[in-house]
Fold this sequence. Notes:
- The chain folds into 2 domains: 1-47, no CATH class; 50-257, TIM Barrel, CATH 3.20.20.
- The protein contains 9 helices and 9 strands.
- It has helices at residues 5-12, 34-41, 50-70, 89-96, 107-118, 136-147, 162-169, 199-210, 232-257; strands at residues 20-23, 26-29, 32-33, 80-82, 101-104, 128-130, 153-157, 174-180, 216-223.
- Helix 5 (107-118) runs parallel beside helix 6 and helix 8 (199-210) runs parallel beside helix 9.
Amino acid sequence: MKNTYFQLINQTYYFPQEGFDLNQGSLTFHGISLKYLIEKYGTPFRLTYLPRIGDQIKKAKNFFNKAMKANNYKGEYHYCYCTKCCHFSHVIEEALEHNVHLETSSSFDIDIIRILTDKGKINKKTYLIQNGHKTEDYLDKIIGLMEDGYENVIPVMDSKSELDRFYSKTKKNLTIGIRMAINEEPQSSYYTSRLGIRSAEIIDYYKSKIAKKKRVTLKMLHFFVDSGIKDNLYYWGEFRKALKLFAELKKYVLHWIL
């Protein structure tokens, strides 16, 4: 007996995936005929289904709410949409319909923040997380948000030198995050980590640098596991490392505040 390609796919992937179906031999997505759209617009073809954005945001919020309740966690959860995922206005504005906050990655993204404010899609109380390497233009625009009264601007320090650059350019109080570098596997394209401070150096960085600056408050520990993870064990191993560091760091932060 010969195994067919169809059998291989059938045993490897669940199909049709959620939203997809067959109607008279043609593929549909949530009842929309893909054959009709391709014939009308040609290929290559990409479809953005806006209701799916809200569904995924609700799903993420639900996961966190259940976990927080199960563990009697008293903090709050804020979903932040990363603008670099898709810069199109119809996508970002759809996400904002579901009470989310925003994460930026470049100078260009700060221009988007300004436009969204002018359009009334966000306000100056919206949480704005700034990740990514801080070019001078990007850094200046972040400070511009602070100077213009945006209340929840949280730049994430991707290197040890960034805090001094912020501190020297504004007299405003700074609420910051620290990005923890993840040690990727040797075959990963991001081995040695693209951005961040090594986990072994973060506590000392807080004590020697952040805690000694009167206008600086540490608000966040940020970490990112590369999307190319191969299994759950690797992910949860990295997650536990970050969680352990977070717990240790919080002890120092509370001690310093008291």
